[in-house]
Amino acid sequence: MSQYNMTEKTSIVFLGTPEFACPFLEKLAADRQRFDILAVITQEDKVQGRKRLPAPPPVKTTAEKLGLTVYQPARLNKDGELLEKLEQMAPDFLLVIAYGQILSPRVLAIPGIKPINVHGSILPLYRGASPVEQALLNGDSTTGLSIMAMEAGMDTGPVYSVINCPIAPDDTSPSLRRKLSELGSAELPELLLQIKNGGLRARPQDDSRASYCGKISKSDGLTDPAVLDANTVYNRWRAYFPWPGISVQLKEIPLKLLKIRPVKVPGNPSAPSAPSPAPGRFLISDKRLFLSCQSGALEILELQLPGKSAQPTATFLAGNSHYFA
User: Fold this and answer.
1) Residue 207 burial (CB < 10 Å; 0-12/13-18/19+)?
2) Do residues 179 and 170 touch, judged by C-beta distance below 8 A?
3) What is the DSSP letter of 266?
4) Torsion from C-alpha of 162, 168, 173, 175, nearest 10 degrees
5) pTM given for the model
6) CATH top-level class for 10-213?
7) What is the CATH number of domain 218-324?
8) Which residues of 3-13 are buried (b: 16+ CB within 10 A; e: fewer)?
9) How does pLDDT run across 237-280, given as a tens digit for each residue?
10) Helix (H) or strand (E) holding 148
11) Boundaries of every domain in the chain
């Protein structure tokens, strides 16, 4: 039997940063009879765009609309004043959803019940910073969310519940994140209450099955279709859309492929008996642009040269077909 009074509101300190975390915050904040969001902690504003103006993280914007108290420490682990405030709040849960900082033992010890993390994979698969991208890179047909108790190791804590999610063949990182956040935010409130009343027990992960994924960098988008099959290139595009995107070298210029799809390369209309382009080469046919890969091919629907605007392929070819000569 739980020592916690289930007639009292469940108090939460929420830690999150990107758009992915916002539906969870909105769902809990809307359930005012059962949950009390004591504070929201998110990353600092970051400069964006050509004008280099500071932009708030999505969780901050959402929290302010909800009238919640927001803190943006540069390093939560080293902000003694804020840590003392959180310890005085004595929340039932710390709820961490894509916050973006590793938490110290002192932070993890703050909640009265547990620090809970919502991780974007079916653990122990894809521990680390980019589980959604990794599932797409691997061409997985399913993924999910793991509701887990946090501990000192990276995503190593015991798992309370897994929420499964199918991956469509045309899903990209944004669309898959939306699916996951919609599914997760719908189920999380009840799961937290089950944890609170002792009705949901966490199970240890099988460390022997663990796999890892790191942070994504801009260089990860550089792609060589001469050595990769079309399906692999397409999965890279799905994973890295919209950032860092994928690009290929075109006469020593990085050409960004903004929208692509797998297809069969059509025969050269001017020479039907000619072989298909060598891997890594482009083919123009009927005002359409194709890229031959190590095996298979892709149609390029939208692309962009460095320093130029994004363009549909037909528009791009009207003034830049010489790049493919």
Assistant:
1) exposed
2) no
3) P
4) -90
5) 0.91
6) alpha beta
7) 3.10.25.10
8) ebeeeeebbbb
9) 999 999 999 999 988 899 999 999 998 755 544 444 444 678 89
10) strand 142-149
11) 10-213, 218-324
